From TrEMBL:
One of its GO terms (cellular component) is plasma membrane. This is Cytochrome bc1 complex Rieske iron-sulfur subunit. SUPFAM superfamilies: ISP domain. Belongs to the Rieske iron-sulfur protein family. The chain crosses the membrane at residues 61-82, 102-123, 167-187. It is found in: Cell membrane. The cytochrome bc1 complex is composed of a cytochrome b (QcrB), the Rieske iron-sulfur protein (QcrA) and a diheme cytochrome c (QcrC) subunit. One of its GO terms (molecular function) is oxidoreductase activity, acting on paired donors, with incorporation or reduction of molecular oxygen. CDD domains: Rieske. Residues 9-18 have a biased composition (Basic and acidic residues).
Length: 356
């Protein structure tokens, strides 16, 4: 075979290459090639795009769903008010369930589903669904790309008909405004506002210090120098429904020091014959402080080792606690029993809101 013939034989397969690449990196269509890029199909208009009557119908459907959401939110709030906690109803196939929980769950589901279904139906029937392909671009945006995005945003806002379809806009804003009220109602009913709940305890002027072991009032002669005992407010009983909540704030430790060992003048003025009373609740995370060291007058929190000096206003000398233990001002009444002269002047336990 001649060299010319060999050259022609080697060049012949080039005619059977499946595809070539265009200038933009996309494959050029080759007749008969099953893997060629077919491109985007021709855009098909929806009925709402060409029939204003159908578009109006879709608008009413979307507005109806948003209205249903508003009614669901109002039903949620109404159910929260009218149904007592202990009322039960029979619901097939669930059986007997709490009327309050069932109505709250059902009404909130209606409120949220109404917003979601309305938004989906709006997007599928009234907003533009035409695909707009674009080349992949760099991560950083140049001025031309920013201008293009702003133009697309304006075009999208225009095609959504948000400004033109007032019925949809009004009902959507109404639904989105009402739904957060569900959370507001539930959170507000959790109890008194935190500021009022945390700033006050069961202590008040004239309330006797009661020994929780004997349920009898504490007297100065019951507390020898160097000893530590605990106390609770007069009138607080373990049978009370809110006993745990009250004692968690009002728990008190009472220590008798020698008056000459007390360094803080305010602490000395608020004591009686060297008997001082401090909150038992640690100002770090609220653990009960109870480990007392007689020689140093230090008291230790067992949870995280915060240490307070009871001879110096219970200031923090070690550990993560951020504030000293609040002191309760005490005196004796006409019967010779130790009594409180007021409530704590500052909130007890862990600091909240950087208490002022």
């Amino acid at each position: 075979m001649s060299e010319t013939g060999s050259h022609n034989d080697m060049a012949e397969p080039e005619e059977h290459l499946p595809a070539t690449h265009g200038a933009h990196g996309t494959e050029a269509a080759v007749p008969g090639d099953p893997f060629a890029n077919p491109g985007h199909p021709e855009h098909e208009f929806r009925r709402q795009d060409i029939d204003e009557k159908a578009a109006k119908h879709s608008e009413r459907v979307v507005a109806g769903l948003f209205t249903l959401s508003m009614l669901g939110t109002l039903a949620f709030i109404t159910s929260f008010v009218i149904f007592p906690v202990d009322k039960y109803i029979y619901v097939f196939p669930l059986g007997h369930v709490s009327a309050l929980n069932f109505s709250l769950g059902l009404s909130l589901a209606v409120a949220l589903i109404g917003i979601g279904a309305g938004a989906v139906h709006w997007a599928r029937t009234l907003m533009s669904d035409e695909e707009m392909p674009d080349d992949r671009h760099r991560a950083d945006a140049d001025d031309e790309l920013r201008a293009n995005i702003e133009a697309q945003w304006v075009q999208g806002a225009k095609e959504s008909a948000f400004g033109r379809r007032k019925l949809i806009r009004t009902t959507m804003l109404g639904a989105l405004t009402l739904v957060p009220l569900s959370a507001v109602v539930i959170l507000r009913d959790m109890g008194p506002l935190p500021q009022d709940k945390l700033r006050h305890t069961a202590w008040a002027k004239g309330k006797a210090l009661i020994n929780p072991n004997t349920n009898k009032p504490l007297r100065p002669e019951d507390i020898p120098v160097g000893s530590l005992t605990f106390a609770q407010p007069e009138g607080l009983n373990e049978e009370d429904e809110d006993f745990q909540q009250q004692i968690a704030k009002a728990a008190l430790m009472v220590v008798r020091l020698k008056p000459e060992d007390i360094k803080d003048k305010k602490e000395l003025d608020w004591s009686h014959q060297g008997i001082v009373a401090f909150s038992k609740i640690c100002t770090h995370v609220g653990c009960p402080v109870s480990l007392y060291e007689q020689q140093t007058h230090h008291v230790l929190c067992p949870c995280h080792q915060s240490t307070f000096d009871l001879s110096d206003g219970a200031r923090v000398i070690f550990g993560p606690a951020g504030h000293r233990l609040p002191q309760l001002r005490i005196s004796v009444n006409g019967e010779g029993n130790l009594v409180a002269m007021s409530d704590f002047e500052v909130p007890v336990g862990p600091a909240f809101w950087e208490r002022g």
